[in-house]
Amino acid sequence: MPTALTSIDAQALLNAQARAWNTNPAGIAATYAPTGSLVSPDGHVCDGRAVIEAAFVMLFGGPATPGMPPAWAGLFADTTTD
Predict the structure, then answer these.
(1) Which SUPFAM superfamilies match (predicted)?
(2) Measured between alpha carbons, how far is residue 5 from residues 1, 12, 44 in Å?
């Protein structure tokens, strides 16, 4: 049975992602279920928390990850949600 997401739940999730964005980009992946998926605006699919974490690390300037679009390298480096 699907679980409803309230606006309070959604705001809490977005706040958790913003905190991680500003302090530990890899921590953004912790807001996803272990078997979760992320579909990027460019259509790339990341399946599973480990792949999502690798994607965020790469986006924030970490090492390139095989299978990730090269254009993602450092795309979010030095950004903040503040």
Answers:
(1) NTF2-like (SSF54427)
(2) 13, 11, 25
pTM: 0.78
Q: Which amino acid is at 66?
A: P
Q: Are 52 and 29 in contact (CB under 8 A)?
A: yes
Distance CA 25, CA 18 (A): 9
How many residues are present in the chain? 82
Interval 44-54: pLDDT, tens: 999 999 999 99
Tokens of 15: 């706040």
Confidence of residue 23 (pLDDT cuts 50, 70, 90): confident
In this prediction, residue 28 carries a pLDDT of 86
CA dihedral 50, 51, 57, 59 (to 10 degrees): -160
**Cα 6 from Cα 39, distance rounded (Å):** 22
